[in-house]
Design goal:
The chain is α+β, with helices and mostly antiparallel strands. It folds into 4 domains: 96 residues, no CATH class; 307 residues, no CATH class; 65 residues; 306 residues. Helices cover 43% and strands 12% of the residues. It has 28 helices and 21 strands. The strands form 6 sheets. Strands 4, 5, 16, 17, 18, 19 and 20 form a 7-stranded antiparallel β-sheet that branches. It has a 4-stranded parallel β-sheet with strand order 7-6-11-12, covered by helices on one side. Helix 22 runs antiparallel to helix 26 and helix 23 runs parallel beside helix 25. The N and C termini lie far apart (67 Å). This is DUF403 domain-containing protein. InterPro entries: ATP-dep_Glu-Cys_Ligase-2 (IPR051680), CP_ATPgrasp_2 (IPR025841), DUF403 (IPR007296). Pfam families: Alpha-E, CP_ATPgrasp_2.
């Protein structure tokens, strides 16, 4: 068919005729050879072979862009994903993979979406009533509408939740369903997701990336916006709490969760506190967050860990992810939980055969959205049907006890050979563990491949949130698309890409207002900082400063500080100053040996992965820590960390020259300066900023003392003192203050004791004291806490010290005192294990 015929049903455009012709020609070229598989529904091409749905509008608008412009926008989207650090992990894999966002969105008309949304709302409400009955009166089982074995035989049925009334009244604050089209073109539910549905954050990230890449298409096509849904979801959780200004937390299993990136994105977007199990403690019948200001009440938890890990006292005793005693808190109504533990029983495929009758009994309505015909093999009739039609059915686990890509593994159809015998043996041994389904061929959607559109299978996860006004459906979805036509996109893994979902309105879309009718209580900080986050921020600052110290040493050895007060300090590798630099790099475990050629030594110190003290390993540690702080750091910080890592990584087949190494060191220092500037200018100057800055300053003070002990000894040469000034970035200031050349005492005073030099050790200690004065103090007796006493004592030493008295042993003592101060800060603000419940930590509950 011609593109012009395909577009005849779309709206007319006021473009010049030549532009329309070019668009039509492009669309013909893009769609030439587009061939959906026979017997499958396709989003672009209808049964009559014509473009249908919202696609003519989309293609008409996309066709105004030439291939070069489209390619540039695709590249900008990929660059944004890389810069923002959007990534995911395959289940069980510790390696992060860049988020594989496909180029084109899935587009759906508003009228069709409204019909689909009505089915999702009905199904979400039905699921809420079913789970409430399962853990409540049990009428469905008693009246024969639901076999007891479907419930009790599911590993997701949690007996400790029996009889529990959910605080706030909701078992399912969030519901999701995996959706696909059947061969008849009707939407059908492939799976219900009620345990801890993932993908909502990735749907948000997909939208942000694609709307940024195609803002003109987004506006012209009247794509429905997302903020209203998220505001309603947040309001629903807040309304379930018994305080007017509740503290809502997102409970994660940590940075190694396969979906941690999306969890951090959701916490940042919604203003939730991202917490791990170790951040929480049960006290006085309530759940509290361990913060730097003491224990603070958590009113609601959005759970993103599986329910059986939630409470090691009543569920899995080996769990390190949950909170001991939290089930008892829920029984007493002390914390709102989304979703409630035990809700995962609704994900059992064995429930599917009984849903139509249950829907009729509970709602008086037929299901708007059905799924593939299913038989539970624990039912004699279902088993008989399965055995009689085994060659035509798929066999899969009834419940979702298996996690990861294999959790929905299809074990049939089996037509012959050993596979058939295996299936029969499984049914004979534990028939109730299996369901049989009619095969579900997935429908296809167009994706962009080498400048053309190709049909690929997809699955769409649609979300509904319980709000004070009822269920509300996200006007988008988390869509997964296979790169090959024979692949299954049910789980994110290699060969599967994500796609944004655009709901196209026929009329202009008003941006949802986020202006509150009732002003909230004014606040100037986001909330109390969890102790774990403070710990990570502190060490982020320390590792970045360690990387900078190593880079500056390398730069000094390479003579890379440009015009200096003294001559080039390292003209020869065996010069005394060069030997001191090499010895310090050895002491810091940045290099393997001190007698390496200069270029090799510099490369090892900058990028040696085998040496934990190399600049690269410090940068990688900083990046690892930053990964657990995504919701707190500016987006640009992740890009700068990636740039720092890339700058410090050398090709294994590339041997850099000294000049190239100097260039790398200069660029790395530039990235570190950018990170410092971002922290200072873009982070709110609350407790989080104070801890990252304290980490930098305590490490800088320690390193400065080490530099002074090495290069400001009694026998220091002019070259030594020149390196010292370069390491503390004070050559210009020294030259302006002292015109007669270098002096050991003057250099030592400027680098160690000068309270006006922002690079001196004294300046760092004074800044630490100021930070500690601004942080909350728990002790109520008016006396300084031990860590503050340490800081004040150190500050006094620096304030009253004299350069002539600052010798090697004194500098070593100061460095040790600074390390003890760091330990004191950690002991006060980052307690863990038995120390986490010190008596003074139980004050200030709010």
């Amino acid at each position: 068919m011609s593109a012009s015929a395909a577009l005849a049903d779309g709206p007319a455009r006021p473009d010049p005729a030549w532009a329309a012709d070019d668009a039509a020609a492009r669309i013909r070229r893009w769609t030439e050879g587009y061939a959906p598989r026979s017997g499958l529904a396709d989003e672009l091409v209808g049964p009559d072979g014509r473009f249908h749905g919202a696609w003519p509008r989309f293609l008409d608008r996309l066709g105004r862009l030439d291939d070069r412009e489209i390619g540039a926008r695709f590249l900008s989207a990929e660059r944004h994903i890389r810069d923002a650090g959007i990534s995911y992990r395959v289940y069980g894999d510790k390696q992060e993979h860049p988020w594989p966002l496909g180029s084109l969105p899935l587009v759906i008309g508003a009228a069709e979406w409204a019909e689909l949304s009505a089915g999702i709302v009905q199904r979400a409400g039905l699921m809420e009533r079913i789970v409430a009955d399962i853990y409540g009166p049990g009428r469905l089982v008693a009246e024969g509408l639901l076999p007891a074995g479907v419930v009790a035989g599911s590993p997701e049925y949690l007996r400790p939740a029996q009889g529990m009334s959910p605080p706030g009244g909701r078992w399912l604050p969030i519901y999701a369903a995996d959706i696909g089209r059947g061969p008849d073109g009707r939407w059908q539910v492939l799976a219900d997701r009620t345990q801890a549905p993932s993908g909502l954050g990735y749907a948000l990230e997909n939208r942000m990336v694609l709307a940024r890449a195609f803002p003109d298409l987004f506006a012209d096509l009247h794509v429905v916006r997302l903020p209203g849904f998220f505001q309603a979801f947040r309001s629903g959780l807040a309304a379930a709490c018994d305080r007017s200004d509740p503290r809502i937390c997102l409970l994660t299993s940590g940075p190694y969760s396969s979906t941690y990136v999306e969890q951090a994105a959701l916490a940042r977007y919604l203003g939730f506190l991202l917490v791990e199990g170790d951040d929480l403690v049960v006290s006085d019948g309530l759940v509290h967050v361990r913060t730097v200001a003491g224990l603070k009440r958590a009113d609601a938890l959005w759970r993103r860990i599986d329910a059986d890990y939630l409470d090691p006292l009543e569920l899995r005793t080996d769990s390190r992810l949950g909170v001991p005693g939290i089930l008892e808190v829920m029984r007493r109504g002390g914390v709102v939980m989304g979703n409630m533990p035990g809700a995962g029983v609704l994900e059992s495929a064995a429930l599917s055969p009984y849903l139509p009758r249950i829907a009729e009994a509970l709602t008086g309505e037929s299901l708007r959205l059905s799924g593939p015909r299913t038989w539970w093999c624990g039912d004699p009739q279902g088993l008989a049907h399965t055995l009689a039609h085994l060659d035509a059915l798929t066999l899969r686990p009834a419940a979702t006890a298996v996690r990861g890509p294999e959790r929905d593994a299809i074990l049939a159809p089996v037509a012959f050979g050993a596979a058939r015998e295996t299936a029969l043996a499984a049914l004979n041994e534990r028939a109730f563990d299996w369901v049989a389904q009619e095969p579900v061929p997935l429908s296809t959607m167009p994706t962009w491949q080498d400048g053309r559109l190709v049909a690929r299978p997809f699955v769409m996860r649609v979300f509904a949130a319980a709000t004070p006004e009822g269920w509300r459906v996200l006007p988008s979805a988390f869509c997964r698309v296979a790169e090959r036509e024979d692949a299954d996109p049910s789980e994110m893994r290699a060969g599967i890409r994500a796609a944004d979902v655009w709901i196209l309105s026929d009329t202009p879309v008003d941006a949802p207002t986020l202006v509150l009718s009732t002003p909230p209580r004014i606040r100037r900080v986001a909330g109390h900082l969890p102790s774990r986050a403070a710990d990570n921020l502190f060490w982020l600052g320390r590792y970045l400063e360690r990387a900078e110290a190593v880079i500056r040493l390398v730069q000094a050895h390479l003579g890379g500080f440009g015009e200096a007060i003294t001559a080039d300090p390292c003209a020869a590798d065996d010069a005394p100053t060069a030997k001191r630099i090499r010895a310090l790099l050895m002491e810091w475990h940045s290099v393997e040996a001190a007698d390496l050629p200069t270029a090799i030594l510099a490369q090892e110190a900058l990028s040696g992965r085998a040496h934990y003290g190399s600049a690269l390993n410090h940068a990688l540690e900083a990046r690892r820590i930053a990964a657990s702080l995504r919701e707190r750091l500016p987006a640009e910080a992740w890009r700068s960390l990636a740039d720092l890592r890339d700058t410090l990584v050398f090709s294994e087949v590339f041997t850099p020259t000294e000049a190239q190494l100097r260039g790398r060191a200069e660029r790395a220092l530039g990235h570190l300066s950018a990170l410092t500037g971002l922290a200072h200018e873009n982070m709110n100057h609350g407790a989080g900023w104070r801890f990252v800055d304290m980490g930098r300053r305590v490490e800088r003070a320690i390193n400065t003392c080490s530099f002074a002990a090495t290069f400001c000894g009694e026998d220091a040469t002019a070259e030594d003192l020149g390196v010292m000034l370069a390491l503390v970035d004070s050559q210009i200031a020294y030259g302006a203050r002292y015109l007669a050349g270098v002096s050991r005492d003057a250099v030592c005073d400027m680098g160690v004791l000068d309270p006006y030099n922002p690079r001196s050790a004294a300046f760092q200690v004074a800044a630490i004291v100021a930070h500690l004065d601004a942080l909350p103090a728990i002790a109520a007796d008016g006396l300084p806490e031990p860590h503050r006493r340490q800081a004040l004592t150190l500050a006094g030493t620096f304030q009253t010290g004299q350069a002539a008295e600052i010798d090697g042993p004194a500098l070593e003592r100061l460095a040790n005192e600074l390390e003890r101060l760091a330990d004191g800060i950690a002991g006060r603000y980052f307690p863990s294990g038995a120390e986490a419940l010190r008596p003074e930590k139980l004050t200030g509950l709010a």
